């Protein structure tokens, strides 16, 4: 597969080959060679050791209550340990099961944890695919190094993800169920058993694969990995968002909102729980006195509106202040819109406020809004509750907006192989396990 041109991440340099080298040199200098000899080991998928699970479990029915618990993982998981003295160890593909941690482990006290979320798709052509996994692995490198977890070569992480799914694909995404997916959760935690507040000296990288429901069609709701299980019943389809209050801030300039670190999510659960209890699906996170619109739950947020000058625009908040997660879905929506809808739509990454949205709505210029992320996929937004009032968002196509639907279809066609050989889809070679 040809290398994929990667759009700017935090700064353009950070996702290029030299950018990654720079991140590694800056954050984990010991894994760079000293003279000719590497001091400690780099992450190396070719050393993988496989131990087969001899008590495999049954695959639940798609969309069954069991799947909605979001607790059913596949038979195997990938683990790899790191220490500051010897670097990355041998990766193990092994039976899924509990981890052993000392009560003093750094992650349990200091939130030294980061994660990724991506999906494995069973295509309509029966092939198994990942969607832009290199974006997830690079983002994970940025998240890990933001919280002093060890650096690694993102391509090796992708190789490990592929090794896990190659083994799980045939059973967990059977060819008899095209159009289904598994949710993959690469995770890294600091494991050193000591209470000192210091840079982690030991870490564990692991990758699990979990059965997930679809959040984009029913009126379900999801956190970073989509953990809420109830489906609320409501008259109109689409997400109902509750705008965050001024005293509740998800992320701030100079903070770490741009990193997928666990520390961003725990503190947001009170607001999410309150939204849920009041009948909303997600929090729309606002920032500052002007109520800048940032993200919806753990998804990026887009609006389609007409400017007062009459221009049709697709708008989302910019990445500049490191407040917003650089979503792979966000990035893909922007790229596809620019390539394919640029004639109709102006694509804009800019700061905008709730008052901009309110004025557009009042003047009949607000046309669509949607949340975009791996767990939610592309989910049309039905209304925003802000300062005691419901701001209704039109749905030109009944249950969705016109461009929301078009963009979702583009993405689905790439993910499930209806669009042939797209450069963003990575076909995985499946391994046959003997019966
Ligand atoms: C994961 C996440 C997103 C969506 O990113 P994708 O790569 O599209 O899944 C958006 N915002 C936050 C805060 C997230 O955690």
From TrEMBL:
<dbReference type="InterPro" id="IPR043132">
    <property type="entry name" value="BCAT-like_C"/>
</dbReference>
<dbReference type="InterPro" id="IPR005786">
    <property type="entry name" value="B_amino_transII"/>
</dbReference>
<comment type="similarity">
    <text>Belongs to the class-IV pyridoxal-phosphate-dependent aminotransferase family.</text>
</comment>
<feature type="modified residue" description="N6-(pyridoxal phosphate)lysine">
    <location>
        <position position="260"/>
    </location>
</feature>
<dbReference type="InterPro" id="IPR033939">
    <property type="entry name" value="BCAT_family"/>
</dbReference>
<dbReference type="GO" id="GO:0009099">
    <property type="term" value="P:L-valine biosynthetic process"/>
</dbReference>
<dbReference type="GO" id="GO:0004084">
    <property type="term" value="F:branched-chain-amino-acid transaminase activity"/>
</dbReference>
<dbReference type="InterPro" id="IPR043131">
    <property type="entry name" value="BCAT-like_N"/>
</dbReference>
<keyword id="KW-0028">Amino-acid biosynthesis</keyword>
<dbReference type="GO" id="GO:0009098">
    <property type="term" value="P:L-leucine biosynthetic process"/>
</dbReference>
<dbReference type="InterPro" id="IPR018300">
    <property type="entry name" value="Aminotrans_IV_CS"/>
</dbReference>
<keyword id="KW-0032">Aminotransferase</keyword>
<keyword id="KW-0100">Branched-chain amino acid biosynthesis</keyword>
<dbReference type="GO" id="GO:0005739">
    <property type="term" value="C:mitochondrion"/>
</dbReference>
<keyword id="KW-0663">Pyridoxal phosphate</keyword>
<dbReference type="Pfam" id="PF01063">
    <property type="entry name" value="Aminotran_4"/>
</dbReference>
<dbReference type="InterPro" id="IPR001544">
    <property type="entry name" value="Aminotrans_IV"/>
</dbReference>
<dbReference type="InterPro" id="IPR036038">
    <property type="entry name" value="Aminotransferase-like"/>
</dbReference>
<protein>
    <recommendedName>
        <fullName>Branched-chain-amino-acid aminotransferase</fullName>
        <ecNumber>2.6.1.42</ecNumber>
    </recommendedName>
</protein>
<keyword id="KW-0808">Transferase</keyword>
